[in-house]
Amino acid sequence: MKKIIALVMALLVVMLCGVASAETAAPKIGIAIYQFADNFMTLYREELVRYLTEDCGVPAENITVMDGKNDQAEQTNQIDAFIADNVDVMILNLVQSSSAASVIQKADAAGIPVIFINREPVKEDLDLSEIVCYVGADARQSGTFQGEIVAETENKGDINGNGTVDYVMIMGDPENIDAQYRTEYSIKALEDAGLTVNKLFEQRGDWDQTKGQELAATALSQYGNDIDVIFCNNDAMALGAYQAIVDAGRVVNEDIYLLGVDCLDEVKAMVEAGQITGTVLNDHVGQSHTAADAALKAVAGEKLEQYYWVDYVKVTK
Ligand code: GAL
């Protein structure tokens, strides 16, 4: 009888929010974010906590959110503390994806499911346990969309008319697959459209606005009017690059193109105003809800898929 009641409860929960409800023992959830000082991950984290508490009914005191401060050693301590505290599930945005294997081994031994978000571990690491999954967006798609936006401009990205698309690439943290794929697939999309491309400059800006501005300023002073396009792996760096473009007396969409990824509100407004050529919506709402739903499913003992994908969306004027 008890089992039946538990089953009925679990079903009720599914109807409420993917799975959880206050009627079952509320789960203890450990969330580790690679660094709070990241525009996009701040939106993601806030929506994740809002959804878990307001929509899924998990009491706020059951949720612990830690700032890894971009330091894997510090974050490993935080994860170890979650395990020692016997949380029911962890939602992890690793500082370094390469630490996934050791995290999975520890969590699996303790029987704690792990939902990885934002920084995709390699499949062979996910294969180490049945109670782990990755929730994210396929970064190849975001890169492809950036390249397509450029290829779809009236002069097909060759704004200075010299016959090639001469570009600057400002990368995120290159350990991160988002940075690798966006860098690769934005250019691949241009080539697939039959365009000739020429890389003038490529450097890491680590997702950071100030670094984006500095790198764009350096590229602009080095290559001046030769530059047709500045690709940034995210919007924060595109905001920085925009400032450098203004400072260099250049005008976006008139003599240079500028691309980001994330679709931060500020950038969305700038795309509308013609100050940034385009961006790609990195759906933090869809991703955070999917991650929370997966976490609550795992707590209820449901089997997880290995991957949950959320689409990017192309954003132009
Ligand atoms: C990317 C996002 C970046 C940054 C990064 C952190 O998906 O576009 O802005 O937040 O994740 O890993």
Low-confidence segments, given as residue ranges, are 1-16
Measured as a percent range, the helix fraction is: 40-55%
Give the percentage of residues in beta strands: 15-25%
Task: Please count the beta strands (DSSP E, at least 2 residues each).
Answer: 12
Q: In angstroms, what is the radius of gyration?
A: 21 Å
Mean pLDDT: 94
- Please count the helical segments: 11
Bound molecules: beta-D-galactopyranose
Major beta-sheet overview: 6 strands, parallel
Principal-axis shape equals elongated
Strand order of the largest sheet: 2-1-3-4-5-11
Terminal CA distance reads 59 Å
The structure class reads: alpha/beta
Report the order of strands and helices.
Answer: HEHEHEHEHEHEHEHEHEHEHEE
How would you describe what is shown here?
It contains 11 helices and 12 strands. Helix 2 crosses helix 11 (284-299), helix 3 (72-84) runs parallel beside helix 4 and helix 8 packs across helix 9. The longest helix is centred in the first third of the chain and has 17 residues, at 39-55. The termini are far apart. With 317 residues, it is an alpha/beta fold. Mean pLDDT is 94; it is low at 1-16. Strand 1 (29-33), helix 2 and strand 2 (63-67) form a beta-alpha-beta unit. The strands form 3 sheets. The protein has a 6-stranded parallel sheet with strand order 2-1-3-4-5-11, sandwiched between helices. It has a 4-stranded parallel sheet with strand order 7-6-8-9, with helices on both faces. It has a two-stranded antiparallel sheet with strand order 10-12. The chain has helices spanning 2-17, 39-55, 72-84, 100-110, 123-126, 139-151, 177-192, 209-223, 235-247, 265-272, 284-299; strands spanning 29-33, 63-67, 89-92, 114-117, 132-136, 165-171, 197-204, 229-232, 257-259, 278-281, 307-309, 313-316.
